[in-house]
Amino acid sequence: MVKVLISDKLSPRAKEIFEERGIEVDVNVGLEPAQLKEIIGQYDGLAIRSATTVTADLLESAENLKVVGRAGIGTDNVDKPAATQRGVVVMNTPFGNSITTAEHAVAMMMAVARQIPQANESTHQGKWEKSRFMGVELFNKTLGLIGSGNIGSIVADRAQGLKMKVVAFDPFLSPERAKEMGVKKVEMDELLSLADFITIHTPLTDGTRNMINKDTIAKMKDGVRIINCARGGIINEADLLEALNAGKVAGAALDVFEEEPAKSNPLFGNDKVVCTPHLGAASTEAQENVAIQVAEQMADYLLTGAVTNALNIPSVSAEDAPKLKPYMILAEQLGSFAGQLTESGIKGIRIEFEGQVAGLNTKPLVQAVLAGLLRPMTDCVNMVNAPVIARERSIDVAEVKNDRSSDYHTLIRLVVTTERMERSVSGTLFGGDKPRIVEIKGIGIEAELTKHMLYTTNQDKPGLIGELGTILAKAGANIATFHLGRAEEGGDALSLIQLDAPIDEAILKEIRDLPLVSQSKLLHF
Ligand SMILES: NC(=O)C1=CN([C@@H]2O[C@H](COP(=O)(O)OP(=O)(O)OC[C@H]3O[C@@H](n4cnc5c(N)ncnc54)[C@H](O)[C@@H]3O)[C@@H](O)[C@H]2O)C=CC1
Ligand SMILES: O=C(O)CCC(=O)C(=O)O
Q1: From the UniProt record, which GO molecular function terms apply (predicted)?
Q2: Which of 57, 131, 213, 218 has the fewest CB atoms in 10 Å of its CB?
């Protein structure tokens, strides 16, 4: 019998749905990691919220596990690459708690504007401190929205109802969507300088971790108020505390913390800080929505193989699957390569299929490219919803097929046009099933994309390889493979270096500071 464990507090509807579908369910909330590891081997499915952390170590003991279902949005508590490697589908429920979380952000903004929690506590103590609690109005103030996806766009709508002006920074926000939302699309620095209130609605990724720090706070208006109902770790808590103490930041409202559960935190006890214990999604309605949705999705997958809202696998029919499998990996890698390098709004992409691949069902491949491309920007993208998300973000997607082969018997080329540039990347299959990159920005290069890749563009001049090697050796970073390509002798060149382990930002900076280097970035696959 199929067996599921619910390891976080979910609405009882989830258990009922599993049971109605003939699935055995255990509910065991609050397990220590070691206890969970001990029992996880019995289960085909694991239903969680944010308290359970699904690590590579846990997955090693999960020999029967087929699906992890997150009743909620953020899946930063799940090691998705490790789950993918073990063939475990990771699903989330991308929309069930968006309204509730947006409402919490608005409530937190009001609470910090009028010091409601502090005034509440004082009044309960019988102090009647009318003059202590002087607030500010929201009317006519500028709200800076960082991240304008599902939750951010609802917050923008509600804030406009309160007659606030909304400016938004989101690399994926198109001018058309900004207009539709009634917000002004701005760059990050402009947002920081304009906003009276700043609210964050991005996932926690390598790109957003520590985004609000000493430097970004310095660019904010004096007396700014900051709201974070997204994820801890996006705001540097030590830097925020310093800015609160210096009076630069007038108040902060935080639902999420660097370390959760947050039992102690340097910001606790600070009179300018309003805190809630990760309550963004905590409404009866949202919890009912996400519990029902996750149970239905997991039951469908476990009983019929149907896939909805999966973050790490494509939806493909059983017949096409074996033929498409190596191409799916290649397509996702090409998208991910371009997505990780893209730092401005994408206007359009063109996917060209040449030779053998042009004769296959390329629809899932387009979806795989899009999912790879959009994943660095949003937790919610999967092979199924990637085209919808691309459409919502006004990204034009064009597909070109040519069954004649050129230099390679089969080739996928991705061309991404952003607000600033056009970038192409192509790949083929070696030996019928081994994905290889064969071209980047018109420059020929042959490389396998593995877990940690250092991508560098530079001028083709003697000495660079030695300098790169020296920096990496000094940092103890082992080079597994080294691939080079150049447009012409002495011209633009690039390298893809496969590393055994990631390198930190300081080493990357050293590489970027080399006179011959124009760009260097660590990519993960
Ligand atoms: N406090 C709570 O209980 C809850 C927190 N969340 C958090 O809220 C986050 C956002 O949720 P949704 O709006 O549903 O996700 P979404 O995927 O619809 O929107 C996220 C947006 O952030 C943008 N983004 C990514 N990197 C960015 C960057 N560096 N700068 C500016 N924008 C960037 C993306 O382009 C995207 O538009 C989730 O990832 C989750 O971590 C979600 C639900 C409940
Ligand atoms: O499940 C919760 O309470 C948290 C929800 C959340 O953070 C999410 O959906 O990303």
Answers
A1: NAD binding; phosphoglycerate dehydrogenase activity
A2: 131
